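hey m, so remember when u said the tokens were messed up on ur end? i reran from scratch. heres the input so u can diff it against urs
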Amino acid sequence: MEFKRKLSKSEDKEIHTEDAFRSKKQPISKKAKNSHIPNEIEENDSVFKRLVKTSGLILKTGENQNQLGVDQIVFQKKLIQTLRIHPSYPKVIEEFVTGLESYIEDCDSFRNCLLSCERLQDEEASTSISYSKSLIKLLLGIDILQPAIITVLFEKLPQFLFENTNNDGIDMSRLIINQLKWLDRIVDTKDLTTKIMQLISVAPVNLQHDFIISLPEILGDCQHAEVGKELSELLMENTSLTAPILDVFSSLRLDVNFLSKILQLVMDKLSSVRLDDLPVIIKFIFHSITASNALKVISELREKLNVQNFVLPSRVHASQTKLKSKGLASSSGNQENNDKDCVILLFDVIKSAIRYEKTISEAWIKAIESIDSVAAHKTLDVVMLFIIYNNNTQTKKNIERLLRSKIQSGCIQEQLLDSTFSSHYLVLKDICPSILLMAQSLFHSQDQRIISFGSLLYKYAFKFFDTYSQQEVVGALVTHVCSGNEAEVDTALDVFLELIVLNPSAMRLNAVFVKGLLDYLENMSPQQIRKLFYILSKMAFSRQHETSNHIQDDMYLVIRKQLSSTTSKFKLIGIIGAVTMAGIMAEDRTDSSNLTQGRADLSNELCTQVTSLLQLVHSCSEQSPYASALYYDEFANLIQQRKLASKTLEWVGQTIFNDFQDAFVVDCCVIPKIDFVLSIKALYGLEEYNTHDGIAINLLPLFSQEFAKDGNQMTSQESKQKSMSPLCLASHFRLLRLFVARQHNGNLEEIDGLLDCPIFLTDLEPLEKLESMSAKERSFMCSLIFFTLNWFREVVSAFCQQTSPEMKGKVLTRLKNIVELQEILKKYLAVTPDYIPPLANFDLENLDVIPHSTSASAKNRSKGKIGGWKRKADGNKVSSPDTHSTEENTECDTVSSGRSHQDKEFTGKEGKTLVSLQKYHAFFRELDIEVFSILHCGLVTKFILDTEMHTKATEVVQLGPSELLFLLDDLSQKLENILMPSFAKRIPFLKNKGSRNIGFSHLHQRSAQEVVDCVVQLLVPMCNHLENIHNYFQCFLAEDHGVDDRPGVEAQEHHIMSSCYQRLLQIFHSLFAWKGFVHRANHHLLHSALGVLAGRLRQMEQEQPLEELLSQSFNYLQNFQHSIPSFQCGLYLLRLMMALLEKSTAPTQKKEKLASLAKQFLCRLWPHGDREKNTVFNDHLHDLLCIYLQHTGNVLKAIEEIAGIGIPELINSTKDASSSTFPTLTRHTFVVFFRVMMAELEKTVKGLQAGTATDSQQIHEEKLLYWNMAVRDFSILINLMKVFDIYPILHVCLKYGRHFVEAFLKQCMPLLDFSFRKHREDVLSILETLQLNTRMLHHLCGHSKIHQDIRLTKHVPLLKKSLELLVCRVKAMLVLNNCREAFWLGNLKNRDLQGEEIMSQNSQESTTEESEDGTGMTSQASGSKATEDGKDEANDEEEDEDSDESDNSD
């Protein structure tokens, strides 16, 4: 039966398209038909022409279409009928085909036969179809003609393979192949397949692509498998046909195994394919992925897919952009654009697969998650995380979690992110909203590394994306600034600072958004206010753009409003903003090239504006000492950080000198009078002055005047001198010396008289009259000492870098004065507990605590509450107890809470006072980082620095241990503050979040890299001090003196040296543990630092590999182990060595040395003070024990040694004694040891991989031995709760006991399943030991319930669940090994820790319960098993006991 079909709409459209090149013809009427007779084919003897015409088709010549006068089906039926009734049938078929061959010899005729026929319609016809199939296609629809017609076509086709397209745009080769598409029926499919595959093999490449793509439209389903095989062979031979072949594979019905082979073949060739073919190949790979092989395929795909090689780098992109803007684009632009289009198309394919195939997105996430090496991460990984985050909403949380983990581990760093945006900005710009959403999520983290990564996303999005995206970035950053979260605000402002440098013009376009932040100044910290005004000033006062006047006007308006406010808080905001803006306006611009006269005039105008602005600030702040001090500090920072124009500096020089001299400097010969009954003396002078020469600092008279004021009505003369307050002394001097240093290139000889001049004070030493002093007098003396200390601290910061030996000697003397005054201050503070010092740092993070109430100050003073905590002082007053509220003092207590215990411990050993100056850290002037250059001066106790003063008497000065400790302690605090990640410095609840930065404002004006660079320069002198301290303790150990038996002075010196030792190790640890070393830009700093340590052992060559430097540095530090004076020093030495170990690529040998050293410290008998019962020591011991167990080669052996040797020694010793093997193990520290051992045991067994049946016999034996040791250690530790039955021990047993049982189920039971038959005795030993332990855990559950301790009972349900799972798992193992009969179920009685039965109501009523041992039942079970299964009796007995024990946990 023949099957026919109607012409579909799509076919009709195709036919219409093929004939579109012809001129449009009018409808043909009957009369029109007659007019066409001259163009028709005349009748001849050709069978082909005669039969075709008879059937209803008129052949035409030239460009005229063949005309079909009847319907297509009617034509085919007539032709078939005519052929069948022909007298010479079936020979007529051959004649018909011969006639066709003759007719199509003419190219025009052949073309007409291949093109669609014109449908002749009657005027009354109702059909709307005006085009029909071509003559060839109509003939191919006739079964008796199809094979011959196909043969004719394939014989005719080769002559057109290598011909170009005709003038009319028709490609004859493609037109011939199109005739074979979508045939209703193929008579000989095998022959057609053979012919077309042969044709593909000889056709040119461009036609091969078209022929291959046409195969699914030509061949039937039965030929798909055969075609697939032949195409796979062709795929291996010709790589250029990869894309069309894989495209066809997606449309063919092929076997799954065959597709998997093709997939592997494609994956092997993936790295060598062309970019144009890549989208099709990736589409085929995604189409062939199954759930079982998804992870493997994706992992291999990300390894071989290197899209970055096809993408232009960012610099080429920038150059192309410039060329296009000038109309000078290179000729290669088309190819580059084509490559970009291919990359975009590739990622479109990936996006589509990710969106609709959950398996692919999950596999890609797992593939990225499994990468451990930093170098193995690629830009494609980052792009895929962004794409999955954008296209799959269900995986957003997983992507964020994975990205956070990669950032914290250092796998995804700034360099990789930069390369990602540079290479794939065209792809990423389409998903910009998702990238900003991810950055917003990262900003909410508490880890500074994650927040910094989020800031990089904003930065690169602004750099590479379009204007609209830039506006979105600015809007998101503004939202973060307004969030109120300190870390978010700081990081967002830092991003703005980078953007204003990266692309100033783009930032100016979005200035209106940034300008809105001026409404949120009240909620910002001083440092944040500085950043905001710096950003706005940069946009407002640009030399290239003069269209920013609206920003200038708004800034001036805000600043004037704030400065004129009567509220101190807003006045301080105005001061900070004005000085910051003045700094931008007054920047020195003389170094700019092509400076025109117009710009020079503008500079003069700006200079006038700057001086006017600074004069305004000065006049608005002179009424308040606090505001004046802040103004001086802000101006000093401005001079230190930026190079100001010379005209501005000239104006500063004219005002600073006169103001400072008039306010604070007097002649020594004139001793002023004060109202207090105190004798004024010129103290701490370093020169012998004549009565008529010399100057002095007028401190006591000024302070006494301020202290004596009652805050009532003041005369106008008094109000003019309110700025002459000792509160401004240090700040004003800092401004003066920075100006002089800037003007004279660091030389301070012009003001060197302030270094050695005396101070008008009174006798500060309390002697024996301290207790008899009134509270007011003690507060007065404390404030006076604070002012003196802060003056000396500023003097040391000013002159520390002077090269003159005379000045170096005087600086060391001032340093000694500071240490002496601190000891005196401690004595006063010990008897003045409620005292609050005067302010020294005026840019407090919390501006709400600034004093501003005059009446409150006067009222409190009238009541005599000089040291009151609740008192608020007038902004014009400097009285020491009146400067702060309770909230400020709370801030100070939290500045360095982790370090205050050290000072308390030190003073406690002296037996004098427990006052710590740590909580007063915020009330001392900050030392500059340059101060630590003093460490170059002299050694600790040996070297003496001669000042070489040219006088009759030479004063000998040295850097003593106390001065060294003072410097090291300050440096250690600075490094801890700036180098330690903020997420590690948790702020206590209800504490001020900004308190940790109080007293470090100057430090935070430097980058962490700059600070590290400074510290690296100090490594040589610090190593000298470290070695000298090492020699000191070596001599001390050689003399074999006990610290407690030494005289008081020597004991104090020993403690100071020990503290110096600890501070040096802390500094080294803070330096080498800095996370910034992972960045490539900081590698040279790490090499320099390691080079210093390595060079202490032997002279190193200039170029040494990092691993060699690490090894030498590690060995250098290891040499200090024998001179460690305290337990804390030992811990910091280990932490320092661990920091080096983390950077090593071959850490095995170093780990062994580290573990050995940690064990030595655990086995050393430390001084009594290091074994006291306190939480600090316990925390240190916990860390040290963790270091030992984590780095030792055999954790189980180490635990067994402590638990099997040390603890029995402790149990058998007296109450206050310790273990002889481990002296650090006492009854007070036993809980620490027990907790760490249980935790490390659980972690170790959890990390052991479960064995498989395919492993070798040796591996099985090793793992069984390992688990035998683990269970034995667990048994020893669990049984210790019988002796130490206190809550901490029981809690650890419940918690880690459950974890151990769970690890045993997951890791050990699979091993026992297939080891039972061959290693029966070993399995029995493990289960027998574990049975006893789980019984103890069951007793512990009963003990917890009886005592009703909720802290313990909350762990009971989870533990019992794990024990029940163990019962089922043991039974499963017995069934697997044909020992089902050996499983016996029994009940355990509830017992306490000592084994005594716990009587319950049920147990009292029933007397039929069996004992928990169940020996008889076990024997019977084992016997029955032996008779039935022929197994060993002992084996069954032990298995039964284990099942019994496990079930008893029910």
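this time it looks ok to me. The mean pLDDT is 77. if urs says something different then somethings off w ur setup not the seq
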